[in-house]
């Protein structure tokens, strides 16, 4: 995994974490839907090869 790919992956994970923290701080329907949408976008990007996930972070 290249350094730029690792940085992009790290940025995506940080963005996901912030969205989830937002929901935890304010657990309303809007925050929940935003967190779910962010998780779906991440999963879709991973599935389509839009982002590369480091091997040590892939659950087997």
Describe the structure.
Helix 1 (3-25) runs antiparallel to helix 2. The protein is elongated. It is built from 2 helices and no strands. It has a domain at 20-48. Helices cover 72% and strands 0% of the residues. The mean pLDDT is 83. With 60 residues, it is mostly helical.
Summarize the topology.
Elements: H1 3-25, H2 29-48
Rg (C-alpha, Å): 13 Å
Low-confidence stretches: none
- Give me the number of helical elements: 2
Mean pLDDT value:
83
The coarse silhouette is elongated
> Strand portion, in percent?
under 5%
Largest sheet: none
Separation of termini?
Answer: 19 Å
Which bin fits the share of residues in helices?
over 70%
**H/E element sequence:** HH
E-strand count: 0
- Global structural class: mainly alpha
Which terms summarize this structure?
60 residues, mainly alpha, 0% strand
Question: Brief description of this entry?
Answer:
The protein is mainly α. The protein contains 2 helices and no strands.
């Amino acid at each position: 995994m290249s350094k730029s790919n690792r940085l992009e992956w790290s940025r995506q994970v940080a963005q996901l974490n912030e969205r989830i923290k937002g929901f935890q701080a304010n657990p309303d329907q809007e925050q929940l839907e935003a967190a779910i949408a962010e998780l779906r976008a991440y999963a879709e990007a991973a599935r389509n090869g839009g982002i590369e996930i480091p091997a040590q972070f892939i659950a087997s």
